[in-house]
Amino acid sequence: MNTAGDVAARATAGFRQRYGGEPAGRWAAPGRVNLIGEHTDYNDGFVLPFALPLRTVVAADRCDDARWTVWSELDDQPVEFGPDEVDEPGGVTGWAAYVAGVVWALRDAGHTVPGARLAIASDVPVGSGLSSSAAIEAAVLAALADLGGLDVPAERRPRLAQRAENAYVGAPTGIMDQSAVIRGRAGHALFLDCRSEEVEQIPFDLDAAGLAVLVVDSRAPHRHADGEYAARRASCEAAARALGVPALRDVPVAALPGALDRLDDDETRRRVRHVVTEDQRVLDTVALLRSGRIRDIGPLLTASHASMRDDFEITVPEIDTAVEAALAAGAYGARMTGGGFGGCVLALVDADRADAVADAVRAGYAERGFAAPGTLTVLPSPGATRLD
Ligand code: ADP
Ligand code: MG
């Protein structure tokens, strides 16, 4: 893994090489991981993500005419576009759509976006579920807002970045990723109510407690993830209709037994049980963190995993192996994080045991004949910011 300083240096070097001269500034935005609260977002429920130390950095300056040139170290070719391409979604495709989408969303909200040259470097793995997409959106948004002196308050930025991704790129995502990477704070997790979109900073100072979160990138091939996601979502929406509530968030955990009695197939009952108990686990996690009891959230993380595995049925063998190996090696709790069918696992561990737990996960993988996973030890880190 590169350190954040290296990423910033790579963005600057890319800028100098592509455009000549020095950038006017550098802006960074992190990836994120969801501590707990899976498949609760589209049920109007609760999530608790935090920002990662891995970051995407944009080195940029403004230019006189309203044209944008963007280069990323992921692609040799810079992409250039003008006002015509950001009048409507669809004018720019491929990875640069995430950049053009931010320009479009800002213009659509009535801002005069300055032309700019941007060079992008990143440590956030792409497509692993750690939200490299929100990181690039948030870093570009911060750069363009500062370069143009635009008045875009922090609380409005997640919506703008989400519009770039939903309406311009065409990827349906909730507000969690953009909220976490823009509003995240070091030593805190972000408690987000997906119905009201209210956020609250929850103390999660792993470092002070001698703890860390180990993130395991399962490297499992995503198997039918889109279709399965749509099926879970449809099942939850149908259950809410059958129960006569706007969303499953409106079924309190105390009312769960009665609600399950009113549903007539076992699969739907299990789907509902996951969502309703998962919302409660987020609330319980928040309550424990508010009273400083970080280690005690371990069993909630592990219960969340069991619920995803047995009731929501969205885990895969690589993921279950990583969770079991982490727990056997002494993690306080472990769970899959993200939409499922691959992606990442997180484990709450003593900081001085993180390497040993990572070794145990790799050994568990080797025993099962799986290709080696990626591992990374993280602490809750700052959200999007200007570097210099
Ligand atoms: P995730 O957000 O989980 O990493 P997504 O599929 O949502 O996965 O977003 C990944 C896409 O975002 C990439 O395929 C690419 O188009 C774009 N992207 C993310 N980071 C970068 C980057 N540093 N440079 C260029 N494109 C990027
Ligand atoms: Mg994404």
Describe this structure in words.
By secondary structure, the protein is an alpha+beta fold. It folds into 2 domains: 4-203 and 382-386, Ribosomal Protein S5, domain 2, CATH 3.30.230.10; 211-378, GHMP kinase, C-terminal domain (Alpha-Beta Plaits), CATH 3.30.70. 40% of the residues lie in helices and 21% in strands. It has 11 helices and 13 strands. The chain has helices spanning 4-19, 97-108, 132-147, 157-169, 176-183, 225-243, 256-261, 266-290, 298-310, 317-328, 354-368, and strands spanning 25-34, 46-47, 49-63, 68-72, 79-81, 115-122, 188-193, 199-203, 211-217, 333-337, 344-350, 374-378, 385-386. Strands 5-4-6-3-1-13 form a 6-stranded mixed β-sheet. It has a 4-stranded antiparallel β-sheet with strand order 10-11-9-12. A hairpin with a 6-residue loop joins strand 4 and strand 5 (79-81). Helix 2 packs across helix 4 and helix 4 (157-169) crosses helix 5. The longest helix is centred in the C-terminal third of the chain and has 25 residues, at 266-290. The radius of gyration is 21 Å and the shape is globular. The model has no long low-confidence stretch (mean pLDDT 96). Bound molecules: adenosine-5'-diphosphate (ADP) and magnesium ion (MG). Adenosine-5'-diphosphate (ADP) binds next to strand 6 and helix 3. Residues 98-184 form the GHMP kinase N-terminal domain. Pathway: Carbohydrate metabolism; galactose metabolism.
